[in-house]
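Work Package 4 report. The design task specified in the project plan requires that, given a folded chain encoded as C-alpha cells, an amino acid be chosen for each position. We show below one input record used in the internal validation round.
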C-alpha cells in the first residue's frame, strides 16, 4: 500500500477546489463537502461567472448603411476581435478529459458533523471491481504524480458554533479522517472555504488556522469579553496546532503567485 500523506492547504474558492481535484486526482478520489448542497452550489455560481462567448455579428446585420472610413473600420475590427476572445470559465467547458475525470470522483455532502463522522466510520465505500480484479477507469489513468485523494472541504468551519468546537472535538474528527485515509490508502487533503471578499489574498485563509478553541467539549464561554482567547474558560489552543499533529501545511496552487 502506498504511503499516505496528509496536507492542509490554504483556503480556496469552490472553483479553485474543483480545478485542483481535476488536475491532481487519480481513481478512486472522494470529495466531501461539509455543507449543504444548495449552499455549495450557490457559492460556486458566485465565484464562477457564466461569461458567454461572444461572436461578431454578420456584416449584413449592421444597423447603419452609411459607409465607414478607415479609422472607424479599425475600431470596429478591434472591438469584434476582443469580443470573440471572451470565453467561458474552464470548468464550464465540458472537454472529454474533464468529463472522463469527473466520473472518477465520488461526491458526498455532509451538512452536519454527525453526517461527516458517520460517513468516515464506514469509509471507503464498496468499489465496483470488474472480473479479473481491475478497477473501473484504471486503464484511463496516466502515470505520474497523481494519487487517489480524500478531499474534505470546510472541515474546521463545520465544527464552529457547535458543542464540538474544541481541541477534543476537532481532534476526534481529524483522527477518524486520518484513519479513513490510511484504511483506503489515499492521500488526505483538507481545505477551508475562502470568502470572496478576500479575493486572492491568502491571509484570509490563515485566519481559520489561527483561530483559538477550548481544550475540551462543553467549555463555557464567558460573556462580555470581545477577545476570542479570553472568551473561553480554561486553556485554549490554536486550530493549527490540532491539525499539525497529522497534517503538513502547504500553500495551494491558487496562492502560489502571492
Amino acid at each position: 500500500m502506498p504511503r499516505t500523506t496528509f496536507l492542509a492547504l490554504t483556503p480556496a474558492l469552490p472553483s479553485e477546489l474543483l480545478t485542483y481535484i481535476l488536475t491532481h486526482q487519480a481513481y478512486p478520489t472522494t470529495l466531501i463537502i461539509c455543507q449543504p448542497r444548495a449552499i455549495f452550489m450557490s457559492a460556486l455560481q458566485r465565484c464562477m461567472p457564466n461569461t458567454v462567448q461572444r461572436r461578431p455579428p454578420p456584416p449584413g446585420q449592421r444597423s447603419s448603411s452609411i459607409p465607414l472610413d478607415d479609422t472607424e473600420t479599425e475600431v470596429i475590427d478591434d472591438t469584434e476581435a476582443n469580443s470573440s476572445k471572451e470565453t467561458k470559465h474552464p470548468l464550464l467547458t465540458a472537454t472529454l478529459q474533464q468529463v472522463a475525470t469527473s466520473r472518477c470522483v465520488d461526491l458526498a455532502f455532509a451538512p452536519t458533523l454527525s453526517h461527516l463522522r458517520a460517513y468516515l466510520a464506514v469509509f471507503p465505500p464498496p468499489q465496483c471491481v470488474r472480473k479479473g480484479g481491475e478497477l473501473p477507469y484504471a486503464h484511463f489513468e496516466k502515470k505520474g504524480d497523481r494519487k487517489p485523494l480524500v478531499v474534505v472541504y470546510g472541515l474546521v468551519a463545520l465544527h464552529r458554533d457547535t458543542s464540538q468546537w474544541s481541541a477534543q472535538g476537532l481532534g476526534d474528527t481529524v483522527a477518524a479522517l486520518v484513519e479513513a485515509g490510511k484504511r483506503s490508502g489515499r492521500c488526505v487533503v483538507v481545505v477551508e472555504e475562502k470568502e470572496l471578499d478576500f479575493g486572492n489574498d491568502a491571509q484570509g485563509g490563515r485566519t481559520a488556522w489561527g483561530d483559538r478553541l477550548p481544550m475540551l467539549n462543553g467549555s463555557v464561554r464567558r460573556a462580555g469579553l470581545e477577545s476570542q482567547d479570553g472568551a473561553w474558560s480554561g486553556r485554549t489552543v490554536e486550530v493549527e496546532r490540532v491539525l499539525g499533529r497529522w497534517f503538513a501545511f502547504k500553500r495551494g496552487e491558487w496562492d502560489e503567485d502571492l
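The chain is about 35% helix and 15% strand. Validation will be extended to a larger panel in the next phase.
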